[in-house]
Amino acid sequence: MKIASKPTLLEHLPHLVEKNYVTCRKEGQKKIYSVNYSKIGNTKKYVDMETNLIHFFAKNKECFFSLPVNEQVTGVLRFLCMKKLYELQTRIALELDPHSFEKQFGVLFWTNPVLENIEVWLIEKCVEDEKYREEILKVTDGLLEPSRQQVLKTKVKLW
Q: Of 133, 119, 124, nearest to 69 (Cα)?
């Protein structure tokens, strides 16, 4: 299997060595490069988390729709709110340490569209099923009104 052309590989190796993903040692005239598996392990952890999320969502779609509509909507809201808060935390952490691979990957993870599958399911079902759409809109209107009132009461206007 061809991984990369020699010029491309030679271009990237110094960066990989600098970030400690690859180690380099000299043996006579040769440079011997080796993968630093302890560092790569973090990458594998995030890839595994994403794979697990995809499988989790695939398995739980039926379970999600078996819930009452108001629980579906509040579940989506809680999940998306949690996702945005984690995204905010990881973006702040990345700003403080922009060279951290773990923090870069954290931002990639929390901005991953896979995490929005649950919202996509709800939207798709609303498009397909008029009665379901009416129920969802009724529940979302009921949840929006108190929030809208709270925003209007704040002394600092957001818009």
A: 133
- For 111, the 3-state DSSP assignment is coil
Residue with tokens 């009452």: 68
If one counts every other C-beta atom within 10 angstroms of the C-beta of residue 142, the result is 11
Q: Which residues contact 111 (CB under 8 A, 6 or more apart)?
A: 87
How far lies 126's CA from each of 46, 61, 74, 134, in Å?
32, 15, 16, 8
What does the block give as tokens for 38?
């302890």
Distance CA 19, CA 36 (A): 10
What pLDDT band is residue 156 in, cutting at 50, 70 and 90?
low
Please give the distance of CA 115 from its chain centroid, rounded to a whole number. Answer: 6
Cβ proximity of 57 and 118 under 8 Å: yes
Tokens at 34, concatenated: 């080796």
Note the pLDDT of residue 11.
79
